[in-house]
Structure formats: C-alpha cells, structure tokens
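2024-03-11 09:14:02 INFO worker-7 job=invfold-0412 stage=load source=structure_tokens
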C-alpha cells in the first residue's frame, strides 16, 4: 500500500511535472547518441546499481537481508506494455513484486514474442546483499531493432509486501537522427504493485482489492518507507541506477538488414547438427527458428533451425 500523497505532489503529478521522473530520470549527459543507424539490429548490456540503503531510505529499513530478486527486461514495440503507472499489475508483475518469481512474466513475454510485440528478453542477476553500489548484470545482451526500440523491466525490493523497481518504455533510439543511443543512464524509483497491503518491509500481508501500480512519493511525514529528509524538505531518493550500453558488435543480436527473417545463417558442426547452445539461443524466437543452417563450407543448406531444434522451436 502506498503513502498518502500530499496535495501539492498530487497536483504536480497530474500536471505531468513528476510523471516521467518517477518512471526514470536521466543522469548527467544521458542519453548519449551514436552514429549507428536503427536499420541495424544491435544489443545492449544492462547494469542495475543499487542505491537503496539505510542512509538514503532510513524509515524501517530492513535490519537483515535487504536484497533484490532477479530482474527481467524485454525489448518491445509501442504495442506492448509490461507495466505502467496507474496500471493494474498482471500476474507476472504481481509474482515478481510479491515473491521475486520471474516465471509467469517470462511466460507472458513469450506470448508477446509470438505476437511480434516483443523482440527479446534477458534476465538480470539477483543482488544477494543490497549494499550501496551492489550491481545486477544482464546474463546476455538485450537485442533491439527498429520495430522494437523500447525496453521495460523490473525486479523486487526484498523483503517487502509487493514493492519493486525498474522502468518502462525507455527509448533506446534518437527519434530525430534515427540512431541508437550509445549510453542511457537513468535513476529509477520504488513502486508499489497494488496487489498486497503493507507499509513496512514484511511478506504475507492481506491482498489489496482494486489496487493499481503507483510510485512512492513524499507526503507530510518522514515516517514512511523510502522517504528521507533534506533540511526542511521531504524527498524520495532513487533506489537504483539503470545503465544501458550499446553493444554494436553483439554476436547474439547481429542482423542482416537485407532480409531480417530468412537469410540468417548458423553454422552446423561436421555432423550436420547444431550445437545445444544454438538451440537454446533460438528457443521461443520465431525469427531465429526460421534462420537457415549453413554448412561448414559457408553455403546455405536450405534447412531451417526449427528442423534441428524441434523442442526449442515447438509451435513457432
């Protein structure tokens, strides 16, 4: 359950003054542009750096085991909404926010990949001890392309009733130059999923009825989670920093701009079979499963990846 908002902050939010800042807030020179055209598919590495500490967020800060769950990130078109301010949490978002479980969300993302709204998804490592500066790193590059230039993601603040942090609809391209950003560095804040009651860092609270996703904000008291005092001012500091760095030469995300569906080639071993890691790389991705396997002489074999990876490509 969120804090009671002060009248001033509510008005500011409704006027749009704070809406973007509590989703994400650019740091320094971010975003930094590149000369890499969005006609080229590229990858991004993702680093989440913890700022949720006793010093920054003193009220009822957990005396033991402050940590973050694993994170899920997805690259997507404007047709996909993972989560947003004022929205109702899906089962996938609820499970991340309440239990740190990512599986339902990953399943929903797979469905959106099949529909063409999501291109790729990656997992960020959990942070076992949330000391200042502790980091979570994505397990692989997140692929983006011209049709899927946005990234959304989240992870659980733990322990907590249903609190999380992340960002949604972060653009990784410059709409004016149609080039990919080289670095996007943003502050992110604490959010309430609106699925479980509770005003301190405890699990197993009663369910919330009719709740929506909302950001924690400063009200009229410092005796509230995530609130701190700066002189006469009450504030909510960011709980983390998210960094997206362009990996232009990412092997995973390399694309052929002439025909991005049919002419990708994966080299088979002498046996004619793909390596297990190739099937894992293609798992659940229609575009990858349609790629053509090439022989060691470099010639295309005419066989799709799906033929050699029937389990990974089932149903695509």
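2024-03-11 09:14:09 INFO worker-7 stage=emit residues=316
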């Amino acid at each position: 359950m969120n804090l009671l908002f002060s009248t001033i902050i509510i008005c500011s939010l409704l006027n749009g003054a704070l809406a973007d800042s509590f989703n994400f807030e650019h740091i320094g020179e971010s975003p930094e542009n590149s000369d890499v055209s969005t006609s080229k598919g590229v990858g991004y590495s993702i680093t989440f750096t913890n700022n949720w500490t006793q010093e920054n967020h003193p009220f009822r800060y957990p005396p033991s085991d402050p940590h973050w769950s694993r994170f899920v990130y997805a690259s997507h078109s404007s047709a996909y909404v993972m989560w947003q301010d004022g929205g109702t949490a899906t089962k996938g978002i609820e499970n991340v926010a309440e239990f740190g479980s990512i599986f339902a969300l990953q399943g929903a993302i797979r469905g959106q990949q099949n529909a063409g709204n999501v291109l790729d998804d990656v997992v960020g490592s959990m942070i076992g001890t949330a000391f200042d500066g502790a980091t979570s790193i994505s397990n692989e590059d997140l692929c983006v392309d011209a049709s899927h230039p946005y990234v959304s993601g989240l992870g659980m603040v733990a322990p907590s009733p249903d609190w999380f942090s992340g960002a949604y609809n972060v653009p990784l391209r410059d709409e004016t130059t149609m080039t990919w950003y080289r670095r996007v560095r943003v502050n992110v804040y604490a959010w309430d999923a609106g699925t479980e009651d509770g005003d301190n860092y405890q699990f197993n609270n009663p369910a919330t009825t009719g709740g929506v996703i909302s950001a924690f904000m400063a009200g009229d008291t410092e005796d509230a989670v995530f609130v701190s005092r700066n002189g006469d001012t009450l504030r909510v500091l960011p709980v983390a920093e998210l960094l997206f760095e362009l990996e232009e030469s990412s092997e995973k995300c390399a694309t052929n701009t002439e025909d991005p569906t049919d002419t990708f080639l994966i080299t088979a071993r002498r046996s004619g079979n793909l390596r297990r890691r190739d099937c894992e790389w293609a798992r659940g991705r229609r575009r990858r499963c349609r790629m053509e396997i090439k022989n060691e002489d470099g010639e295309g074999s005419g066989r799709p990846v799906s033929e050699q990876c029937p389990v990974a490509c089932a149903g695509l």
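2024-03-11 09:14:09 INFO worker-7 stage=report msg="Residues 1-21, 256-264 have pLDDT under 50 and may be disordered."
2024-03-11 09:14:10 INFO worker-7 job finished
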